[in-house]
Protein 1
Amino acid sequence: MIRACVFDAYGTLFDVHSAVARHAEAVGPAAAQVSQTWRTKQLEYTWVRSLMRRHADFWTCTVDALDFALSAHGLGKRPDLAALLLGAYRGLAPFPEVRGVLEELKARGIAIGILSNGTREMLEAAVEAAGLADLGMPLLSVEPLGVYKPDARVYRLAADAFVLEPGEISFQSSNAWDVAGARAFGFRTVWINRGAAPDEYDLRGDVPELPSLDGLAACL
């Protein structure tokens, strides 16, 4: 029986591309490419730092990734633009169905929370900007561990916080690698495949797959 639903934050609850989209005119014709490079490098830096055992927090990885993305697309000497985009990243737009789904789960008596690479400060800012702070979700950050997903110790944070066995928790992420890590730890998982990506890690057919969080309750 599922007693708690735990969500990845970036890309699952919050649209990581909304920061650049909000300032697309200022970024110019390479806006979509800048946003994709920013996200790709942000994740790459977390994995590399974890493997090297040279931790830097997620905000540092985010800043470094943006510096690379802007330079890669000919916008490297625009500190004003970098500041604009980083400010927007602190208040990413939630996906439209998020609040309704979270409220439905709470109404069913299922605990909800966030498990993220983000720092506590980043998560608090994102939840406040998205109008979700009143839901009272635990915001679980990797920072006490100094390592990033998909390290098994990160998923253990959620099991310990909710005082539940892994099989009593459903973990939702838009990132296939994150779903694979959570599944390996022992969570029930749902892949929120927002980008209609092809199968990875043999997820398809093994875990429920949804194009958004709509319909999540029926999968539990």
Protein 2
Amino acid sequence: MKSERILCPAKLTLSLQIKGQRDDGFHFIDAEMVSIDLFDELFLGAGSGFIIRGQKAGLDIPIDDNNLVNKALAFVGKSAKVEIDKQIPAGAGLGGGSTNAAGILRWAGFKDSVAAAELGSDVSFCLAGGRARVTGVGELVEPLPYLEKELTLLVPPIGVSTPRVYEEWDAMGSPKGGNGNDLEPAALRVEPRLADWRDALTEFTGKPARLAGSGGTWFVEGTYEKFAYRGVSSITVRTLRPESTI
């Protein structure tokens, strides 16, 4: 097997409304998501095994069968030696694990975005890429016209657990977020330190910072001179066309 390189772009959730809950506990959403030019790189070769280089701060990344890459390989009935150059921070709400899984699916020629949700709610969008309205529990991906945008991100070195945020959202009585994201109040309750990073980005740019998904990345539209907060530099990204994610 010839070694192959696969680019896996991060996803950014620009808006998120929660519309209800299934009997199994999963939540129905109505979200706008975009692919951005922040990438992990997958290198696939003959054999088996799993290596992560450049792991970013955040939640620990499992390298056993619980990793989404290994789950994706099993899902498509393939094996490979996988090395990941990880530039997308884990636990940041940027879909790092999901886009890695989607990269494996694309490599295997798997194109069913609805079925891809069996691996994880964000895998469906990451498989499609571009810009889309995402509904259901994440498995329904409706492509939207491409809009070129530049955005400034501030990514705290704080991993935020998506299941914990949803659990807190339920416990809080299903609040509506006032900043385009219904999960923002719950994320701040789960991890109060996020507020400091929100305030830093808001103060520097003069725009209200918005939370990406369940957190912990904050973003504003537009580009600004790079700045650092508590040793972490802001990141400027651009949205990608769907064909850029294939």
Protein 3
Amino acid sequence: AVDTFTLRFIGRGSHGAHPEQSRDPIVAAAQFVTALQSIKSRNIKASDMAVITIGKIEGGISQNIIPETVELLGTVRSFTPEVRDKIESRIKQMIEGISMAMDVKSELDFQRNYPAVVNDEKCTRRVVSSLAKVLDSSELNQMQDPVMIGEDFACFLQKVPGTFLFLTNPKNQNGENYPHHHSRFDINEEQLTLGVTAFVQIALDFLD
């Protein structure tokens, strides 16, 4: 499952030489980021997968000015409803506690986005059988471990049986394959024909 959140700590700005006149949202944000690390290690079973990432922090305009606000953007990844609920609950509790302790206000926009992608076993067996007709065994990789990416295809899988698969196609650049979302990622267009061939075979077999 994929959730996202935007959090703003709102304090009182001041000159950096007079921090006692401020209510510092930067310190509140720093404490929040540090506190987040304990959710996975102390609130979630070690056998349950979960990821909490802060991808953006923005606040302040100068080295000697304590700003009034700090904004953080984050994402949460999980596989079970129980873990998903627990993480959201703990995030909200931490924000409330840190805001009170640091004497700042907070605004949280927590968005539940896509559920977890869970392939249908019967459908997946049929897809693998179809792929084996057009792909070499070295080209077909059946993933054993779940990955924490987000995908709206999960919404379709909640309505009808289906299978989500990857077409791995990064372009090799000087011996390096950069993954999706990397600043140097480039698509290998030669692999697109492989994807078309695979999907055509799957469609033909399902229609047979």
Protein 4
Amino acid sequence: MHLRNLAAAGLLLCFVAEAVCAQNKTVAERLGYPADSKLLIVHADDLAVAHSVDAASFDALNKNAVTSASVMVPCAWLTEVASYAKDHPDVDFGLHLTLTSEWKVDRWGPVSSSDKVPSLFDPYGYLWPEAPAAALNLKTVEAEREIRAQVDRAVALGIRPTHLDSHMGVLFSKPELFAVYIKVAHEYNLRFLAVRLPNLSADFFPACPRRTSFWIPWSWPIPPFTPTSGAISMSTP
């Protein structure tokens, strides 16, 4: 019995040592490359925003010119992407969570109905055209409701998302939006593009394990936010 216990303890120590060793490896090493390798993911953004974007992205994916892409669920050409995704189930499709509509002519609203996310609408009935305006006006609970709706709609159409990121960086613009972004990613068991926000307490980040995210420095030129009442006025739709 004593020898059996020793053997079990030794086996447990081996498992622990192996786990610690794996955690200490760099991402490059875990992918089979030398520790100091520089790895590049070529990623296609904004799928579903236009047929031309989809066609070019599909061609690049088919030729392995890009290996990853992300989809704007509120946009008009979503079903085209869904059709491609069904025919190519191994493609790395993420969701480019969309809370802005920046084009002057071709604009879009949220997936959710206006009564559920009223703060996401600009005065013209679309998503806000710029990231600062969106981050200043939208309510966090409504932003969370909308990004959940975008994930659910993509899945319902047959897209199997591998990760999340944020169109125009809106969800990176302030801690409360970043928090719901991470919350949704964890609840749907999805990897997420993550950033280190300036002036954000280090206590915020232990809840964001590196093994489930891609971390990059963020330098989006969004000015400091000053709360104001009412919507931001715009001169053109």
